[in-house]
Amino acid sequence: METVAATIPLVIGKPKGNIRWKVITLLLIVGIINYLDRMNLSIAAPQMMKELGLTNTWALAGDVAPPSMIASVGSIQNFGGYFGGAFSPIVAGMIVDATGSYTLAFVSAGIIVACAAICYWFIVKQPIEVPA
Questions:
Q1: Which are the contacts of 83, defined by CB distance < 8 A and separation ≥ 6?
Q2: Which of 3, 92, 125, 129 is most exposed by smallest CB count within 10 Å?
Q3: Residue 125's pLDDT is what?
Q4: CB 77 within 8 A of CB 56
Q5: CA terminus-to-terminus distance, the chain
Q6: Can you give the pLDDT at residue 119?
């Protein structure tokens, strides 16, 4: 037996209108809105941080290290954050694959955060002193 495949003619024509300029215009408008939004946020951010009680993450490094070591302590802090941000999805994915639920992944993340807070509470008793 021989089968005959039906063929559908593929009609490719010239696009109606010039969509390219519409996309470029839309990207330009979005870029301008993004610029204005960032400019407004930079002006409003100090007041928002004050009213909402937000702090700068580098403030932790400034609190525990002398001025000559703030960048080093901050870079160690950033490394830990980047490492955790890259490694935690892998671990969480393995936990979810094994259990079929996100509950244990969230509980384990909470336990890790609690351990970090306890370590900070007991280890950092006073700022690092620079020997004279």
A1: none
A2: 3
A3: 74
A4: no
A5: 95
A6: 85
